[in-house]
Amino acid sequence: MHKRIAVAVAVPFLLLCYFLGLSDFLFERSFQRDFAWPPYVDVRDYVVQRLLYNKSSTPQNSMYLFENDWTINRPLISPICNVSSIGPKNSLLIIVKTAPGRLKNRQAIRSTWGSAEFSRYDGFDIRTIFVMGSQPDVDLREEIRDYGDLLVGNFQDTYRNNTMKFILSIGYAYDHCNRSFPRVKRNVPYVLLIDDDYMLSIPNLVAEAKKFAPHERLYTGWRFDSSPFRLIFHKHRVSLSDYPFDRYPPYISAGAVLLTQQTVREFYHAIEHVRVYPYDDVYAGILAYLLGIYVRPNDRFQFWGSVIPRSEMGSLIGIHGYSPEQLAEMFSS
């Protein structure tokens, strides 16, 4: 009798755990012991060979499986190239992640921290561009004509395609203006990837960049050490088939990521052999983990920030959560 009652109670409970996703926790694999990522090649070895040998030649060990082909991942629209805007020394490329319909956010940035006023600061040349996917019902022609600062990918602009924006950004930063001016190599020393709802202090950003040489392997911002969400009702739910491990590698919030030229180069080549993951910040963390790049925490990039007056930013570099109106108000005051 007691066994029947126990079974009658246990079966619905186990079914509930299954449908809620709670049972997934029982079948997770250990990240520390088992982590590997398709197509399961020695990414670091490949990247080292690519950096040591001529880019157009085949590395000594050519037995690698390609996941992402740069000859296919070409943008639909690229920003206008101006060889005098930023160059190989003391320059910073800011790539703002946005969406076609978020014109107000782009205009607010163009009139505040992304304005011509900050195109040069403390010996640094700075350029700000915007990356997005395509959206058929949004006409960008006038904006492209007026500003020439849009990087538009050949993919649908959706949340799950944010990783494609990251890949597009790395490709553009790595190959900045080289196709338009093939005789002038434009290897940008510093790159900031940032969302279009951030307040950014250009003085503090430049001061931070100066702490690191372009050849250092810098990958910094607000660091997360987290686990995948398994509960079925969570909007960022991750199934075991998509990611079977009990935690993610350390990663920097995609809201604001500062990279050096060296890290961009390594990410660029690693992307060829690392399968895409739908969350761009986790994907960057996977790249860094496979390459052995330290994920440097920096609390001057505030992910959990709140709107504060510009005069009170102090040493903060970027703060999340600003509307176009709040950005405009900050700078007008």
From TrEMBL:
Enzyme class (EC, first level): transferase
EC number(s) on file: 2.4.1.-
Membrane topology label: Single-pass type II membrane protein
Pfam families: Galactosyl_T
Domain of life: Eukaryota
InterPro entries (alphabetical): Glyco_trans_31
GO annotation terms (biological process): protein O-linked glycosylation
Signal peptide: none
Keyword field contains tRNA processing: no
Chief location: Golgi
Subcellular location: Golgi apparatus membrane
Any one GO molecular-function label of the UniProt entry: UDP-glycosyltransferase activity
Gene Ontology cellular-component terms listed: Golgi membrane
Gene3D superfamilies given in the database record: 3.90.550.50
Alphabetical keyword list: Glycosyltransferase, Golgi apparatus, Membrane, Signal-anchor, Transferase, Transmembrane, Transmembrane helix
Membership in a protein family: Belongs to the glycosyltransferase 31 family.
UniProt cross-references to PANTHER family, sorted A to Z: BETA-1,3-GALACTOSYLTRANSFERASE BRN, BETA-1,3-N-ACETYLGLUCOSAMINYLTRANSFERASE
Name of the featured protein: Hexosyltransferase
Organism: Steinernema glaseri
